[in-house]
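User: I'm curious whether this sequence folds into something compact or stays loose and floppy. Could you predict its structure so I can see for myself?
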Amino acid sequence: MGLDFLGAPYSAGLDVASFVISPFPYDATASYGTGARFAPARILEASSQLELFDEELEASPYNAGIHTLEIPEVPIEPKKARRLAREIARDILLGGKVPVFLGGDHSISIGVIEAVTDVFEEVTVLHLDAHTDMRNEYQGSPLSHACVARRASELCKVVQAGIRSSSEAEWKYLRKVGNIPVTASSIKRDMGSATREILERITNQNVYITLDVDCLDPSVMPATGTPEPGGLDWFELIHILKQVIKHHKVVGFDVVELSPLPGIHFPEFTCARLIYKMIGYMVVFRGLSKK
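Assistant: Here's the prediction. I'll summarize afterward.
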């Protein structure tokens, strides 16, 4: 028996759902802290403790219909895992639904982004992360979590925000192609100006959001494999997401790199709340609610 986002009583059938949650337990490319493969189940469990009513939106977003797929057995081999993610995401998109992937390490996003660019001709990926993830390969693999943005940039435009860690080679590459990220420090310095820059750089109406939870500061999100100090706080991240979702059509998103810690529960609850908040913004700004 599977786990449902928010709990079984609030799960919609696939035929009537606007959103499809796809848990994807995979962390074979993790290079520091491991455990992200356990995140999808923990997020789904934590989601049952959420209030269904969003006080900011004065709405209950679940009314738009949220369906949760069964947790699959994901192959360890990166190419096979990527292929499975692509197939699942493509089926969801072709069914007219919004895919919401729960990682898993960040490498799962490669297959999902491939599916998005299969279905939509013009799309921008908004990459929220502490790290640039622009390596051409890492530890011998071009499908590593450290290569996600590089692979995505080969498919479509990528706008990066929240960045505060990069190798010299990655930074030189980004400068060469004219795609310097909106850094965490610039967001901290002037959130309004940084948000406007993000919106200006998203030149396509269709947007896919890939959100590594280490974009948040470790004080907010300690349960992640590669934490970096100086990250975003809850309201900074929510402000950016709200404005992007308000002004663009978000066709799907993922939340990745949660590595649950023994004895504490707030990181997975934070992820569940974040997912429900993003769904809520999409419901309100795109008029998806069925009630």
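Summary: The CA atoms of residues 218 and 227 lie 6 Å apart. Residues 8-286 form a domain with the Arginase; Chain A fold (CATH 3.40.800.10).
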